Each structure stands twice: as C-alpha cells, then as structure tokens.
Amino acid sequence: MNKRNVLFLCTGNSARSILAEALLTHLGGRECRAFSAGNHPTGEISPQALEELRIRDFPTSRWRSKSWDEFLGDDAPSFSHIITLCGNAEQACPVFPGAAERLHWGQADPATGEASIGDTFDALECLIHDLLANFRET
After folding, report:
1. Which of these is catalytic: 10, 22, 37, 124?
2. CA-to-CA distance for 73 and 55, rounded, in angstroms?
3. At 62, which CATH number?
4. 93 counts as catalytic
5. Which tens digit of pLDDT belongs to each residue from 36-89?
C-alpha cells in the first residue's frame, strides 16, 4: 500500500480540521500523512479542541491553524484526498495539484457552539476508520 497524503479543510482551521488531522495522524500510522488548513484560518486552535485532544491523550503542541495557501505552491505535498468538513470550504475549495479525490464530510462547527466537541471528535473518528478501511481495500 502506498502512503497517502490527506488534507482536511474547513473555514477557520481551529477545531474540525485540527481534530481530523490529529485523528488520522494517530490512526493512520505509517499509511497516511495528515494535514489541515482553512480558507480563513483563525490563527489559533480552539481551546475546546485542545482540551478534547488532551482528554483523549493526544499530543497538542504539534498542531497549528494555517491557510490552505500553504498547500498550493510548487513545493506542497501531493494529496491523494482533499476532505472538506464544512460547506464554506467545500464551495470555495481551490484545485490542489495532484489531488486524486475530493470528499465532503459536513460537520457542524463546535468552535461556534453548533455541535459539541466530543460529538465532533467521535463522528470524525468513525469517518476516519471508514476511510482507512477503504484505503486498505484498494
């Protein structure tokens, strides 16, 4: 199996996409490299997202809120999958060179109180388990 680069996108890159990046990094092991970004990044991680990661024994120091522009240059990694986590990111998503597949996993935004951070984490964990199972089948 080839190692896959996966980019998670949402508007602020402060909660949903950070959780997805952390989960895939943890669960994907040597199979995947996870990245996250936003079209209007807040520049900081949601305190609720950081606390959820701490509670679940995930590292917190390696994540940062960043623009998806970082992944559009010639030196950017090539992605096997681009996964949008909100409608705004899905509608505004640019074309990433080399991206083979785009998926949309619409999730309410816990950073604005639309969803609980724990429920969002659990939903993303299920989706990532499904994604990894799919990777193993192909």
Report:
1. 10
2. 35
3. 3.40.50.2300
4. yes
5. 999 899 999 999 999 999 999 999 998 999 999 999 888 888 899 999 998 776
